[in-house]
Amino acid sequence: MAARSPGTALVVGATGISGQTICRRLVDAGWRTYGLSRKTELPVDGVTPVTADLLDADALREALRGTAPDLVFFTAWMMQDSEAENIEVNTATLRNTFDALAPENSVKHVALMTGLKHYLGPFDAYGAAVTAETPFHESEERLDTPNFYYAQEDELFSGAERLGFTWSVHRAHTIFGFAVGNAMNMALTLSVYATLCKETGEPFVFPGSETQWNGLTDVTDADLLAEQMIWAATNENGADEPFNVANGDVFRWRWLWPRIADHFGIEPVGFDTEPRPLATRMDDAPDAWRRIAEKYDLVESDVTRLASWWHTDGDLGRDMECLTDMTKSRKAGFLGFRSTSESFAENLARYRDARIIPR
């Protein structure tokens, strides 16, 4: 099967960091692109909004009527209070989408974005039962603990068998990217933190663990993730396979942290004795950011719409080495890569150009 020519695509979760990036790439490549979210307006030009709640099966069916996508990119998830609730809700979103699309029988491929909790375990058992050696490989056995990523995969497999589409799963690590109105993005969170440090005179202290400071790790550029998902959806070597997706380089935070600081003209402070999480040090951030936004005429004065302290703390606070192997997708023909330091710099430049971060 040759690579598919541009047709119609549906991006579920079109306002997220990954969804926005996939939308941009699809539009640029000539795909008629629908973006599904609960919002009536989307941040990417050229995308047709589809407004619906993924948990409202009837409304979703009506909203998707007539879209008839060839490809579906599923990047949405909804965090709940327990893993049992995560499983219930995040499988229902997939099932409802497949049910809504079934009558038109148009779907050829569904690409599902998950992440490294596939190897590390769910939020409420995070890192407690890791059995695989790093770098993680796609062939690792599932952990013996409930995990909504596993449940999502099973729902995907069931939908593929029922509706006859091929599938791919994309296990991203920490994502660096450009997105408007989405705070779960380490590149933006660290940029906000560095800006606060520069303006208030506070030190740019690494918030995470000694393991993360000194150990090897990797991250995923959002553009690279979009490239891999579109590649898998349009090429036969990407069909019916799970793939890790990371930039392809590895680094230590003790190396990257000073390079981030250089972009802001501030002094970096490394790990010392114990983690110093951002969530415990950002009580004054809302007021401070409002002053910064007014001073530099920024487009967003609400820091909670830009930074996710807990999410970055979770990634940087892990007390285990965490990196993935990319051999499988390279052998299949996906040869994309990114420099992590350049990825951060490029995304920071985009945030500055958009007046989200001051120059």
TrEMBL record:
SUPFAM superfamilies: NAD(P)-binding Rossmann-fold domains. Pfam families: PRISE (PF22917). It comes from the Bacteria. Gene3D superfamilies: NAD(P)-binding Rossmann-like Domain. Residues 72-358 form the PRISE-like Rossmann-fold domain. This is Nucleoside-diphosphate-sugar epimerase. It comes from Rhodococcoides corynebacterioides. The lineage of its organism: Bacteria, Bacillati, Actinomycetota, Actinomycetes, Mycobacteriales.
